[in-house]
Amino acid sequence: MARKYGGLQGEKLTPSASTAPGSWVAPTEASREKSVGKWPISLPPGSPVQPVGSVVFALTSGVVDTALDSNLWLVADGSNILITEYSDLFEVIGDKFGGDGIVNFNLPKCFDGHIYFKGTTTSGIYPLGSGTLGEGHVHTWRGYRSSTGPDRNRTGNEQAAAAGPSIVVHASTTFGGIQNELRKREFVPIICSATTSSPVGSVVPFLWPGGSGELLSWPTSILIASGQDVSRTTYSNLFSLVGTHYGSGDGSTTFTLPDLRGLFLSGSRQDYSDGFQPSGVIPGSGFLPDCFTTHYHLFEGGNWTGQQGGASQESRTNQATTPQSGISNGLADSESRADNISVIWTIIP
Amino acid sequence: MATGQIVLLLSDQGESFSAGTVKLYQLNGQSVSRVDSPNLSNIWPSGLYGAGDETTPMHMPNTDGLYLRGFAFNSDNDPEKATRFALSGIAPSGNQIGSYQGAQVLPHIHVSGSQFVPGPRQQQHGGGEPAGPRENQTFTQTNAVVRFTSETNGRFMEVSTEDTDIFDVDHTKVFYYICDS
Question: What ipTM was reported for this prediction?
């Protein structure tokens, strides 16, 4: 049984136009949290900061264009740039993403490849990583061995112990072209080249740990990205950059923000060459489901591969977001996902 | 209002550093003084990510290897939010901000079909009616004749149930820092 901090339970209110920028206060729980003096007591005013070398996600290409105009931000598109022009950034990231490190250096490319961001605490390691399916991911199969009698239900490991073929996962990205994906929306990662504040229309994560969402106070300078409608006049700066890309609200006085509750964020699977203009629509900026790469499993051991004349025995599965029909049990889990910690995705208005 | 803000940094800036008036701490499991970081202390209940009280330093989570996932609030986008758990210590857990969730691969099956018999390789994608194994076809192993068949329907490898805890995506590594301002 999951233990909740402070014993919190109950309904969480959904933001609406009237409660935006994000009022999650359930009165009884708020008072309870307040009475125990725990979380959160108050929040100081101020603007989110972005140190040089940090990354935020831009909601639309309009946001990107405005950020680029400031000369403080760069799109994480793998560009090769001059050290003399971006000395502050070079001081921070060096040539770890490429470049000669003398005259120029490369930005990370967070499109059409290493689009997600994964935490690390180890300095000096190669800063990229690839999607994997677990080597330990096995299937039970039923192999009939005439010398041992009836059908036996074995896992790969058991089969190996029985000196028979074992099942080994071989994740294949060579057919289908499908990568592992998390439940997500795609945005444009932009990199700060000199310490500044978070740009309008960028997504910034917050960790206010221990809470269950019933915020006692929430500054008007931050919007929770929860698909709510907000005023076009109060947030005119944001509206001018985001428009109705995520929904037109009531069609006249409000517009809709993206809903990032429970989701992962990433760069785009589309290549970012000349940007996403003129449409202004970032591919993948809608909800994208999780999936795992097409893959197959090999039976290894004994004379198995020899019997195939050199060809591997394999089974394959399609990209799967739902189980195949015909199987009705044992599929309680509902998604593929990576190790994660939960944060509040916010939007800078 | 940068307190509690997480910065994704492309480079290691050590345990902590400053950007203007903002102090940033790496989320590497370190402990941070409440006296030195009163704003962060304000939003940081005691007992998170490790034991302690209001007079002892705050424990930062160790985010090595973690992706950031949106807190679900009341949405269903994190379908198993209720079983999220504490990264260290006992809190935050469940559907609370800052809780941890391990990887998993969606349980799935593979069609065995003709991939398991000698002859021309045929690609068997999932979906639709799979081809069943040719029951009379056998593979000969040193001391056994093995048929790929099933007690139930002879078609499938079973649903994966074991060790489905490794799942990763194409990524760029970043260092997470939390702000106190």
Answer: 0.78
